[in-house]
Amino acid sequence: MNHSTIRKTLAKLSLGDLRYFDSIGSTNDEALAWAAAGAPDLSLVVADEQTQGRGRLDRKWFTPKGSALAFSLILHPGAALRPHLSRTVGLAALSIADSCSGLGLVPRIKWPNDILIDGKKTAGILIETVWSGDEADSLVIGMGINVLKGSIPPAESLQFPATSLEDALGMEPPAREKILLNILSALIDWRERMGSEDLINAWEERLSFRGEQVQVRTGSEPPITGELLGLEPDGSLRLKDGGDKSIIIRFGDVGLRPTA
Ligand code: ATP
Questions:
Q1: How far is CA 223 from the centre of its chain?
Q2: CA-proximal residue: ligand 1, atom 22 (nearest)
Q3: Among 1, 2, 4, 11, residue whose Cα is nearest residue 184
Q4: pLDDT by residue (tens digit) across 43-99?
Q5: What is the set of domains in the chain, with CATH numbers?
Q6: Would you say the CB of residue 203 lies under 6 angstroms from ligand 1?
């Protein structure tokens, strides 16, 4: 993977600009600085390796050389997106899920920001915002996808099991550039339908643990347990407690686990 193979593979998409790095601290950091400096809509930062890859709350995201797909996409929230910013994580998750389905896999979205295959984490999403006063000026959508076996972190560093596309397929997956093309094509399509019920329905259908008992940890509050029902129109999670009462979980520092 290099600048020219990426540029060639993505040629048919109407992207902004491209920055490619053999190694970088974090693609999101680069994209945030670039967005603040005026990067055009749909500009892309791709790296072969991240040495300081970040998950939420500065947790580490592991991106070793030559085996993972790590990139950050800059979006300018236009008229279609602006009223639905809280759906952005769904936009990203669906795009990864669609690309996995295209490979014949059965992906599930562990709300809010992880993609599971065979119940194991295969991809993660980190969304950050560049503000201009109270308005979101740009969104940075960071994605990390475990493509080859070598991208899976050592088990002792994980709180949730992980896998890769190669493991899930039982064979070598397509080139990372091709997977990137599929994710970005899906994202560009879904972005046109940000406000539609289709997006929420497709997102909800892909949720993992639907109809199952889950435990949700929010910040330092005691965990909430309930049956995972689905999504609210803004992408918040809806559970049902033991007394049939709905509980709505909003985004933030949220960790979801099956209780079984
Ligand atoms: P969890 O998945 O435990 O609920 P989270 O979704 O809050 O946590 P994120 O911030 O999305 O976590 O991702 C960071 C976590 O993901 C790390 O703390 C690490 O446990 C795990 N992780 C890091 N790199 C990878 C990777 N390449 N593949 C799978 N899991 C990873």
A1: 24
A2: 61
A3: 11
A4: 999 999 999 999 988 799 999 999 999 999 999 998 878 999 999 999 999 999 999
A5: 3-205 (3.30.930.10), 213-258 (2.30.30.100)
A6: no
